[in-house]
Amino acid sequence: MQKRARASAIVNFIVRQWKVTVPAIAGLVALFAWLAFGHFGIQTLFFDDKVNEAPPVFASGAGASGLASDETTVDVAEEINEVMADEGVVIEDPVEQSKPVMEAEVLTLVDGTFIDRSHPTKGRAVVLNDGTEQRFLRFEDFATDNGPDLNVYLSAAPANAPAGDFDDDFVDLGDLEGNIGPQNYEIESNVDLERYSTVVIWCVRFGVAFGAAELS
Questions:
Q1: How do the pLDDT tens digits run along the chain, 216 residues long?
Q2: What residues contact residue 105 under an 8 Å CB cut-off, 6+ apart?
Q3: SS3 28
Q4: CA 109, CA 189: separation in Å to the nearest integer?
Q5: How far is the C-alpha of 128 from the C-alpha of 141, rounded, in Å?
Q6: N or C, where is the chain less crowded by C-beta within 10 Å?
Q7: Whose CA is closest to 181, among 116, 123, 126, 137?
């Protein structure tokens, strides 16, 4: 009788411990999963975000070739006018219509090569301009490690500065579109590139720089 009572007590103890332990273990697993995937973004270590953006086209119509996207030569304009005349389309001012569209040339204002900071980073950063106030930052042959909460900064600190200096005085151009591949970021006209002359791939969550490029 005593043996049966003792066995029953042991079983009840195990059941009580099980009821306490299982939720505790489940809670620890859930906490670990949130820290690993939600906070640290461990999944980014195993997947690349690849992009392949074409060079930017400016509001003026200037594209990567340096020519206006709708540019028309005098010969082409005259040929169009002749076809329209043959079809009976009234041309009010054929001389005016034959004038070519002015070319808009895309120039590189400044550029720089990425260097490693906390993660291997390579590629070239260039600032493109078409003669207007519009400017684009473009990454070419770019690659870095993937990570959580990565942004593109223009910083006043030099590329070899301590990491903590990069977010003291900076302009945030937005989320990094991909850790591999060419991509574009428009720069507001009021941003002084002589002051903010360093491109930084910045991890906002952990305050580290993946890579940096000095523009010159």
A1: 666 666 666 667 666 766 666 565 655 444 434 444 444 556 566 799 999 999 999 999 888 655 444 444 456 556 666 766 676 655 555 455 545 555 679 999 999 999 999 999 999 999 999 999 999 999 999 999 999 999 999 999 999 999 999 999 999 999 999 999 999 999 999 999 999 999 999 999 999 999 999 999
A2: 62, 66, 67, 130, 131
A3: helix
A4: 13
A5: 16
A6: N
A7: 123
Contact between 196 and 171 (Cβ < 8 Å):
yes
What is the dihedral angle through the alpha carbons of 83, 85, 89, 93, rounded to the nearest 10 degrees?
Answer: 110
Here the tokens at position 209 are: 């720089």
- What does pTM read for this prediction? 0.67
CA distance linking residue 153 with residue 170, whole number of Å: 6
Range list of H helices, the chain? 2-33, 74-86, 94-97
